[in-house]
Structure formats: structure tokens, C-alpha cells
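Hi there. Long-time user, first ticket. I'm pasting a complex I've been working with (about 339 residues overall). I'd like to know whether the download I got is complete or cut off, because the file seemed smaller than I expected. Thanks.
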Amino acid sequence: MAFTDEQLDRYSRHIILKEVGVKGQKKLLKSKVLIIGTGGLGAPAAMFLAAAGVGTIGLVDYDVVELSNLQRQIIHFTQDVGKPKVLSGQETINLMNPDVNVITYREWVSAQNIEDIIKDQDYDFIIDGTDNFPAKFLINDACVFLNKPFSHAGIIRFQGQTMTFVPGQGPCYRCIFHNPPPVDAVPTCKQAGVLGVMGGIIGTIQATEAIKYILGIGELLTGHLLTYDALTMEFRKIKLSNNPKCEVCGEHPTITELIDYEQTQCDIKS
Amino acid sequence: MVIKVNGKEVNLEKEVTIKELLVIQQVQMPDYVTVQVNEELVDQGRFNEVVVKDQDTVEFLYFMGGGSC
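Hi, the file is complete. Here it is re-exported in full:
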């Protein structure tokens, strides 16, 4: 695959980096990243991955764009209100970078479909941009079963967290958080609010992790939880311990199939 | 004695259990927090018996959903 003049120009700031170069840019163009949830986290992640020239981007979301999304979900515009988020996201990416093939899945992930979606394009890396714990545990377990790396993240109010799972290289999300909290025990950002930029900061870190994984450079957030507090401007990289008793990836796993946990009605609609 | 909780120094008069520390630190919903002491996970069932000692490093890890909504 040879670059066109336009591509050499478009990706020149990447190509000049010795950690990327022509070879790395080609890897990005051949890579496939699945983004589950095209909201606060998924929108900026998708835009930076598209700008970077990730050749195939899968977008999963059943929702339609609402006016209240636009304070933070920067891939969608005012004219998109009422449109399925995956279509709105696809249109923005197509306008930004014609090198990117966007594949849309207008559905919620569930135990029935998530493995098929991940296998559909044999995605290299998965980004969890979902807003609810059942989906977060589902993504974790599916990635453990399919040996796929993924980036977890959550944001609420002025806080965010993210960690990266790579099979065999440190704990999974369930190692640390075990099981979803009971319905409504932990507030969602719909209930508690979120500063619009939180998704931008944390979602962009997720995109950074995907790019680093594809390029095979630097140190990933494997075995670490990165937390961010926007009010105190503090980032903390917390080293996580392995959990040999983990129910899904431990020495004696008891969870061997995917689980659809109960969701609140508000979660399903939001 | 001095311990570190989520990166910040906390002065305590005496050794306390994790369960007591969760109260002292006014952790909301202590049933849904993951606790690491000196980079080791502590099982929830042992919060009442594991004692935090001088110079220990404690991390409270919280559930954080959000993202799409």
C-alpha cells in the first residue's frame, strides 16, 4: 500500500514522529477499532481515531441524538437531533477523513450480539464508551473471552477514570470491580451531571491508548487505573493488583458465559 | 500514625480496620468501593479484620459509570 500525496500531507505530523513513521501510519490505516457508545466518551474517541487515520471504525449505539447530548458529544451537531447517533457519527467522520470506513451497528450490546459485533470485522481494539455498568461488565467479559484488548472508562460530574485491559497483561475490569452495583446504587451522569469536557479528556485518553496499542509503542494503562479530578486538576495513576480469584479471568473462573445484568429503565432509554 | 489514602496523607491516632477507615473518610456507599492496601486487593468480607498500619498506602477505587448517556 503506497500513500497518495494527499495522505502524505494529511498524516505528515504523524509520519515525522519516529515512533510512528510511514510504517506506523500504515498500521493505523489497516487497523480496526470498535467504539461502543457514541456519547460523551465515544464521540471524541471516534473523532481523534478518525483524524489519526484508523482505517475501520465501528460505532455501536441504538440511541438517537438529543439536544441535551450536544453539551459534550461533539461528533453530533444541532441539525442531527433525532438522528441515530451511529449515522450522525458516521457522517461527521466521513466529512473529516475519507480514508476511514465507518461501520455502524444500531443496537444495544447484549449477551446475544456483542461477540458477533466484535467478530464482525475482527476488531483490533475496543473502546468502552458506555454509560451503564451492565454494558461495562459485558464488554469486559466478551473481551476476556475473545482475547481482545479494550479501554474502560467512566465519567461523572468533574471526575473520570480509565484503565486498559490487554489479555495476559494485568487485571481486567472485573478483577477490580467484581460485579455491577445494584441498580440505582451509583448515579449515572444523567442523574448527577457531568462537565462536558470530561468525555473529551478521558475519551481522548482512550483513543491514545488504542493508537499506542496499534503502534506497539509506549506503556499502556494495563494494570493501572488512571483517575482524573478536573476541580483539583489531579491525575493519579494507581497501580492495580492482579486478582487470581477473578470470576472471569482468574485461576478458576466461574463465569464462562456472558451475562445480561438488569438495567434501570432510565439507563435503557438514555 | 500517618497513612496515605488516595494519595493524600491522613493522620490517625491509632491503627484502624478498613471498615473504620471507610467511616472516618466518610466514604459514601462503602459497600461498593474496592479497597487496595499497599497495592493488594482486600476482599470485601475482610474489611472488618484487615488493619491499616502506619505508613500504609490505601486506595479506594470507585465505580464510575457515565460516558454515553
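A couple of notes from our side: The first strand of chain A starts at residue 32 and ends at 36. Residues 265-270 of chain A have pLDDT under 50 and may be disordered.
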